[in-house]
Design a protein that fits this description.
It is a single chain. It is built from seven helices and ten strands. By secondary structure, the chain is α/β, with parallel strands linked by helices. It starts with a strand and ends in an 11-residue tail after the last helix.
Length: 217
């Protein structure tokens, strides 16, 4: 059984189908929804399987991941962006034994570029230097592999920390269609100062780790 962790500000309409699909999935027992904008009750009275967390202020993505995993009840965890849709049957295919073997699993960039693949999904060991865009939009892992991301990095570099600092093995899932417009929330200009602080902290503490991102004007 999976625990699903979804931080949200309710910016993407995709979240409604995402929640519906997850609720219908037999391999998902709980959906930890971290409502960082306190808007859940504008749309829903309650939802089956949803464990609602409404912080007093926006926790941002990386601290929300830490919190979600802390309160989760299962060993199998999925960290999901709120602006993606996919076939949740993947949670039957990627079971606990596979998570123990493959380590922390992110998405291949090609997953977002095609709705159909000639061959089925497969796992590939992740190697440093391979930069798949969208790797961290959908992450599966065994709870024992988690290392808390520093609270100082809030929006960016969570997936960089997982890949480049967390010592657990990593893999990439390829040939698995995921629909998304990508970065629906984080690309908004209002978050630029937070992302700048993320950048400064990353360069100060982990400046020898992989590439760093730049905010474009």
């Amino acid at each position: 059984m999976y625990s699903i962790v979804i931080p949200t500000l309710w910016k993407s309409p995709r979240i409604h189908k995402l929640l519906s699909d997850l609720i219908s999935c037999n391999n998902v027992s709980e959906i930890i929804l971290i409502d960082n904008n306190n808007k859940f009750f504008e749309t829903y009275k309650s939802l089956d399987k949803v464990k609602l967390i409404q912080p007093e202020e926006n926790l941002y993505v990386n601290p929300s991941w830490n919190l979600g995993i802390k309160v989760s009840q299962n060993n199998c965890i999925a960290l999901l962006n709120d602006d993606i849709n996919f076939n949740p049957d993947i949670f039957e295919a990627i079971n606990e034994d596979i998570l123990k073997q493959a380590g922390i699993i992110g998405m291949g960039q090609g997953n977002y570029e095609s709705k159909e693949f000639q061959d089925g999904p497969y796992l590939q060991p992740w190697e440093p230097g391979i930069n798949d865009g969208g790797w961290g939009c959908f992450i599966m892992l065994h709870k024992t592999y988690w290392v808390d991301i520093p609270d100082e990095i809030k929006i960016w570099y969570g997936d960089n920390f997982i890949k480049d600092v967390n010592p657990a093995p990593k893999s990439t899932l390829r040939n698995f269609p995921v629909e998304s417009e990508m970065s629906t929330t984080s690309d908004e200009k209002v978050w630029d100062e937070v992302k700048n602080q993320d950048l400064k902290y990353w360069l100060k503490v982990y400046n020898n780790k992989n590439e760093y991102r730049k905010i474009t004007s």
